């Protein structure tokens, strides 16, 4: 069986630009959440979000790309650049027709679309950018990354809301198993504009808290909704033997993946998250007792949190495995959330540290071991969970690849 490994990480998140900055901020419990600055949110009931601060697209990308790209796509292009550089590959030297891009999106280029529709309404069709034809589209990140790096192999986009980042990784692993040489995958998302904000408020799950430290409290008795954010992570996936042949950095293996869909409301059938977890474990060939850490979806909605904590406890046992949700420091990043958690999980395995979930006080009805302060321990296998609006559930198993650990991957221990 082909073994799919991660050889490059590209992170653009409210906790930092680059994997190591994000990791340092996460371990320190420093939040990237604050008052929204990308638009005037003073008239809205929710005004906090995780923004990628200090990001200037012109510092990273050629000027010709700026007029044709949404802010989200600019973040994605930088994440892809960082992931490819981290993996040590030169795109021009890759087999173009066997190198692809699979990303996820929950909203597309909302900010770009908002601006151009505003021009249409206020000034007329002749003032709408020609780039509106694709800059708003769900698949735009895949397309722009492919074009920029000459990656002409099988590619695609997954649209399953918060679960999308994991679904993209699962699809990319399929491509590697079918013989592709390399796939850039994951999710970078964000719709922090007034149009996107109204759409998120309509879902009824945004926190209206005004203190960044207490507004997003998953698994807490005071849980009252989540905070959104922008950004995510892109990963480079390759077949292990090929990666070893070029002495690539191997962060770990994408060992298992499963996706399920919840039954319709009112059907009296149980939610399908537990089946997703078990399916991913079966796919990886690991037992529940082999898992050292779980990255939770962490909806901060009491009903959804109960479903998740019960599913984790049913599979692994009550309080039997450390559970963490570092997304409390970034907000929920749409399709970028799952892939950022996978990147964080790989760094946790590398350094033997369970990253913290600062803020929440675990409610007694959640039978999990929620880690609120960084905990050092041996970590070999992690499970990452994500759920999307409308019933999507996904789980990914990542584990340490002990056959090859370049020196620089252990330098942070």
Give an overview in words.
Belongs to the thiolase-like superfamily. Beta-ketoacyl-ACP synthases family. It holds the Pfam family ketoacyl-synt. Keywords: Acyltransferase, Transferase. This is Act minimal PKS chain-length factor (CLF/KS beta). Helix 10 links the parallel strand 10 (293-295) and strand 11 (322-324). The strands form 3 sheets. Strands 1, 2, 5, 6, 7, 8, 9, 10, 11, 13, 15 and 16 form a 12-stranded mixed sheet that branches. Strands 3-4 form a two-stranded antiparallel ribbon. A two-stranded antiparallel sheet has the order 12-14. It contains 11 helices and 16 strands. Helix 9 runs parallel beside helix 10. It has 2 domains: 4-245, Thiolase/Chalcone synthase (Peroxisomal Thiolase, Chain A, domain 1), CATH 3.40.47; 256-401, Thiolase/Chalcone synthase (Peroxisomal Thiolase, Chain A, domain 1, 3-Layer(aba) Sandwich). It has 413 residues and is α/β, with parallel strands linked by helices.
């Amino acid at each position: 069986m082909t073994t799919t490994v991660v050889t490059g990480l590209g992170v653009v998140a409210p906790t930092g630009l680059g994997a190591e900055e994000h990791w340092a901020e996460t371990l320190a419990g420093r939040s990237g959440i604050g008052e929204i600055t990308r638009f005037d949110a003073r008239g809205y009931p929710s005004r906090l979000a995780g923004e990628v601060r200090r990001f200037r697209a012109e510092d990273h990308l050629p000027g010709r790309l700026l007029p044709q790209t949404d802010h989200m796509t600019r973040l994605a292009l930088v994440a892809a650049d960082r992931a490819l550089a981290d993996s040590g590959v030169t795109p021009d030297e890759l087999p173009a027709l066997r190198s692809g891009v699979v990303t996820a999106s929950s909203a597309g280029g909302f900010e770009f679309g908002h601006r151009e529709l505003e021009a249409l309404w206020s000034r007329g069709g002749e003032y709408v950018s020609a780039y509106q034809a694709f800059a708003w589209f769900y698949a735009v990140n895949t397309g722009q990354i492919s074009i920029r790096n000459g990656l002409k192999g099988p590619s695609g986009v997954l649209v399953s809301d918060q679960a999308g980042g994991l679904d993209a990784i699962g699809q990319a692993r399929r491509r590697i198993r079918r013989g592709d040489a390399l796939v850039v995958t994951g999710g970078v998302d964000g719709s922090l504009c007034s149009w996107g904000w109204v759409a998120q408020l309509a879902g009824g799950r945004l926190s209206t808290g005004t203190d960044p430290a207490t507004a997003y409290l998953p698994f807490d008795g005071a849980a009252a909704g989540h905070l959104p954010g922008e950004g995510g992570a892109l990963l480079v996936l390759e077949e292990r033997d090929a990666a070893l042949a070029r002495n690539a950095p191997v962060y770990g293996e994408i060992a298992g993946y499963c996706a399920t869909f919840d039954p319709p409301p009112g059907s009296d059938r149980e939610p399908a998250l537990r089946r997703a977890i078990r399916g991913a474990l079966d796919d990886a060939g690991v037992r529940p007792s082999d898992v050292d850490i779980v990255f939770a979806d962490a909806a901060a909605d009491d009903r959804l949190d109960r479903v998740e904590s019960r599913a984790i406890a049913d599979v692994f046992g009550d309080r039997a495995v450390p559970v963490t949700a570092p997304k409390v420091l970034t907000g929920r990043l749409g399709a970028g959330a799952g892939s950022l958690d996978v990147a964080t999980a790989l760094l946790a395995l590398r350094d033997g540290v369970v990253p913290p979930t600062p803020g929440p006080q675990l409610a007694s009805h959640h039978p999990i071991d929620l880690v609120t302060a960084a905990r050092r321990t041996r970590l070999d296998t992690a499970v990452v969970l994500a759920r999307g609006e409308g019933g999507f559930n996904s789980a990914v198993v990542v584990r340490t690849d002990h056959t090859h650990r370049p020196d620089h991957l252990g330098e942070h221990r």
